[in-house]
Design a protein that fits this description.
Layout (H helix, E strand, L loop, with lengths): L11 H10 L49 H15 L6 H11 L5 H4 L6 E3 H11 L3 E4 L6 E3 L8 E2 H4 L3 H7 L3 E3 L17 H5 L20 H11 L3 H44 L9
Parallel strand pairs: 1-5
Antiparallel strand pairs: 2-3, 2-4
Helix pairs in contact: 2-3, 3-5, 5-7
């Protein structure tokens, strides 16, 4: 197994993109991947240089010379990175690797293949090792794993949701290609994050215009509370959530009871005041 030093991942984008760019343009056309990924505006056209202005890439800018992406693809990736850096409490290594994972959609070879981006199993394992302690949640509608946000209650560490890198990538909406080919195969099948793509180019990451969100130094009281909740196990959080809902229900009943008691007291006081101001007339003698 090949293990990369943490500093290696700071230049991984350039290893990925120049492995392809310097070998010429993609022979295919852009094919929208479906799933959680937005459709390509350049559907049916070859990858090309990203447009400047409002449609320019907000992330993954190392791919802007030859890509199917525009802002529609990079905006959700950037939002994912912000959640991971704040409520997700990810390490810098996890942030670097998750950015590489999210930006796979903008690789020219990935964008010209049907279906979700195909990840190398070894790369997914590396992401899992780096992000196992970061907090994630499952989207209730899409059932996709994504970094925990401030409004998410059911969050857990990646290691609580999945047990390995393959499960992590698949639950996050990607396909995974296992390393089942032999050394005698004529050509290593393409997957994002393979050895060839990582060793092709080096040392160009700093000039890529990277705009990854930085991990904040202070999360505030709300995030401190969320951190405390996320340290619980899944079962503890479920019990806590049930208890919270029950407590809120009892509190609402208590408030309604107090409101009715106050109304009754006001009505009794009003009747008493009326009786004092208008005493009953004595019976006249017959």
């Amino acid at each position: 197994m090949i293990l990369f030093h943490r500093s290696t991942w700071t230049i991984i984008y350039m290893r990925l993109i120049y492995w392809w760019i310097w070998q010429g343009k993609s022979a295919g056309v852009c094919i929208s991947p479906g799933g959680r990924f937005p459709a390509f505006k350049s559907e049916g056209k070859p990858p090309r240089k990203a447009a400047k202005g409002l449609r320019d890439l907000t992330l993954c800018r190392v791919f802007r010379e030859n890509t199917c992406c525009d802002v529609a693809q990079t905006r959700p990736a950037f939002a994912s990175m912000r959640r991971l850096a704040s409520a997700g409490e990810a390490s810098q290594e996890c942030l670097d690797l998750w950015e590489v994972l999210e930006c796979s959609i903008c690789h020219p070879l990935v964008g010209t293949k049907p279906g979700p981006p195909i990840m190398c199993a070894s790369f997914c394992d590396t992401v899992f090792r780096a992000c196992s302690d970061a907090y994630f949640s499952i989207d209730g509608k899409t059932q996709v794993l994504s970094p925990c946000g401030l409004n998410d209650v059911m969050c857990g560490r990646a290691s609580e949701w999945v047990s390995n890198g393959t499960e992590l990538c698949q639950l996050a909406g990607f396909s995974v290609q296992s390393a089942s080919f032999s050394n005698h195969d004529a050509e290593e099948p393409f997957c994002y994050g393979n050895k060839a793509s990582l060793e092709a180019v080096d040392g160009l990451w700093k000039g890529s215009g990277r705009r990854s969100p930085q991990k904040p130094t202070s999360l505030g009281m709300r995030q401190d509370f969320l951190r405390w909740v996320r340290r619980m196990t899944i079962n503890e959080r479920l019990s806590w959530a049930v208890g919270l809902i029950s407590g809120l229900f009892l509190l609402m009943r208590r408030r309604r009871l107090i409101h009715r008691q106050r109304q009754a007291a006001v009505q009794r006081t009003a009747r008493m005041l009326r009786s004092r101001n208008h005493p009953a007339s004595p019976n006249k003698p017959t």
